[in-house]
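Methods: holo model generation. Sequences were used as deposited, without trimming of termini or removal of tags, and paired with ligand SMILES retrieved from the corresponding compound records. Each pair was processed once, and we did not select among multiple samples. The sequence and copper (II) ion SMILES for this entry were:
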Amino acid sequence: MRSFWSRSAMVAGVLLTTCAVALAQEAGVGQPAPWQLDLQGPVTPIAEGIRSFHSGLFWVITAITLFVLALLIYCVVKFNERANPVPSRTTHNVAVEVAWTVIPVLILVGIAIPSFQLLKQQETLPKADVTIKVTGYQWYWGVDYVEAQAGQQAQSFKFDVYMLRDANNVPIAGPNGAPRTLAVDNEIVVPVNANVVVQVTAGDVLHSFAMPSLGIKRDAVPGRLNQTWFRATREGVYYGQCSELCGVNHAYMPAAIRVVSADRYASWLTEARQKFATAPAGVRVADNATDALARQ
Ligand SMILES: [Cu+2]
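and the model returned the structure below.
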């Protein structure tokens, strides 16, 4: 009887855990979910690589921790004063010393190999289908769509990304369920299954452009152009936040990337070129900086 109940409880526990994990995974894609464990759900091959590397490391760490705990318990039980009143005076053991040097080295090499493979994938930029430049400012993001191509007229355009706030400057949720403090006025839109190269820089202080579900995080450094890339395999909206402490409103400069089909991307581009129209290259337009210079 007892074994029936304990077995039933175990089965129920496993089922509940599985459901919870499945729900958390789905809810935690593109944005964090309440009570979520683990990383946000991956939607790029690199984010998947990061997640499986992270999970693999978790089991390595677990095994090491349990092994060390077992050693400690063994010593406490076997060599306490009552069990072992006359301690041995042994001080050195060559075999053990070689083992506890060589085995950790092998473990570290075993970790380093997949780690460097992942790093190489991240750092090897593919041929870009879409290139966007993201500039961190206190406290918003500037986004440039860089479309200059040989033989074609450049149709670049740019816009800023601010967190949604109400008239009293209080963060609000966006339409279509965009979450409060992650919802933005202008989303970055990119096509699905396309190589998107992201150039990252900053206009004032250090920021960091991060999108957990896309597996990207790049420091935004004034005067320096960093690059990263992603290839999203699922349509959806993915949120990220500045990940380098950049001042008082550091927590209030989210960004959103909407991944859409190629057709929807093409129609968005047509709209965006008009909405965010800029003057053709070669025309100087006064902005705040040039106005300030002119006044000096
Ligand atoms: Cu920032």
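The two ends are 89 Å apart (CA to CA).
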